[in-house]
Amino acid sequence: MEYREIGKTGMKVSTISYGASSLGGVFHPLTEEKGVEAVYTAIDNGINFIDTSPYYGYLKAEMVLGKALKNIERDRYYLSTKIGRYGKDGVNTWDYSAKRAKESVYESLERLHVDYVDLINVHDIEFADLEQICNETLPLLVDLRNEGVVKHVGITNLNLRHFKYVIDHVPRGTVESVLSFCHYTLNDDSLADYFNYFGSKEIGIINASPYSMGLLTQRGVPDWHPAPESLKRLAKKAISFCEKKGTSIEQLAVSFSVSNPHISTTLFSTTNPENVLKTIRHANTPLDMELLKEVQNIFEPGFRDTWVNN
After folding, report:
1. 56 is catalytic
2. Which of 44, 84, 87, 277 is most buried as measured by Cβ atoms within 10 A of its Cβ?
């Protein structure tokens, strides 16, 4: 397993990391015992970074992950969670106030059975008033960082331009990492446009969803996926092409995402221990540059096409 530092945080993390959204039953129903075993499998096979959120499964992901973490030595992993996005009974809610952010951090610590988190993220800032993020939310998280309750501070977002706005409007060092999803994949590499900018600010890059939320899987795109139909059709062609070449779209997708040294780590999510091992194998397989070029040619008519988060 290869390890890279997230910016200048000192956290050297595995290039493929465990995203705990699946532990909340976000994508498929889960058996808690199997989900806990997936976490153990990840840690036992070299993964040392875990990301979660109170939003995933409306607290369930943190609670299931907490059951696993009780049995894992704290120095074996770095832990990331989030504030700002929540929900209950199928209704999504957002609250980026300093008061709610502080409450949320301490509630997460309790659910996760830890004394601190290594990274706290402001979740999906595209839904927030960016002025509030700059002037209220992030200053509160910096206070918690100074107190040692959280070790590092980051932001997550779908719309890449928002990252730059926030970073440019807060003191240098406030934001130590960014978490971007679905923007460094086989069909969309637009995150690359920001590599030099983040590097100049010494900000680490966390990439999430190498499978583009299921678009790039042999199982096929889920019904709820927000991608335009034209992009879904291109994905089917790419999946079939990889199969004819004797490999899987998943293999190529993970190899591509972890191959770029600008990206500290790439998050994937599953509750299946076998899929954890399979994804680690994908990450350890060298990128097939010829196949990559052929697949990106298939995606060319819809390359970098994106969608609105919801």
Report:
1. yes
2. 84
Place of tokens 């983040």: 198
| Pairing assessment for the beta strands 204-208 and 85-88 based on DSSP bridges | unpaired
Phi/psi at 309 (5° precision): -70, 155
For residue 152, give the nearest of 4, 2, 7 by alpha carbon. 7
**pTM assigned to the model:** 0.96
Which one of 18, 56, 58, 78 is the catalytic residue?
56
Helices (H), the chain: 32-44, 60-69, 98-112, 130-132, 138-147, 160-168, 195-200, 229-244, 249-259, 273-283, 289-299
CA atoms 225, 231, 233, 238: torsion sign: negative
**Amino acid, single-letter form, for residue 280:** I
Alpha carbon distance 138, 247 (integer Å): 44
Q: How far is the CA of 71 from the CAs of 41, 134, 194, 233, 261, in angstroms? A: 13, 37, 39, 44, 32
Measured CA to CA, the distance from residue 194 to residue 131 in angstroms comes to: 21
Q: Residues 98, 109: contact at Cβ < 8 Å?
A: no
**Cα–Cα dist 203/121, whole Å:** 13
Which one, of 8, 18, 4, lies nearest residue 72 by Cα?
Answer: 18
- At 17 the three-state DSSP class reads strand
Q: How many CB atoms lie within 10 A of CB 99?
A: 10
Q: Under 8 Å CB-to-CB from 60, ≥6 apart: which residues?
A: 23, 24, 25
Token pair, residue 234, equals 């291109």
pLDDT digits (tens, 9 = 90+) for 104-123: 999 999 999 999 999 999 99
pLDDT in tens, 35-89: 999 999 999 999 999 999 999 999 999 999 999 999 999 999 999 999 999 999 9
How many CB atoms are closer than 10 A to CB 206?
A: 26
Alpha-carbon distance of 218 to 220, in angstroms, equals 5
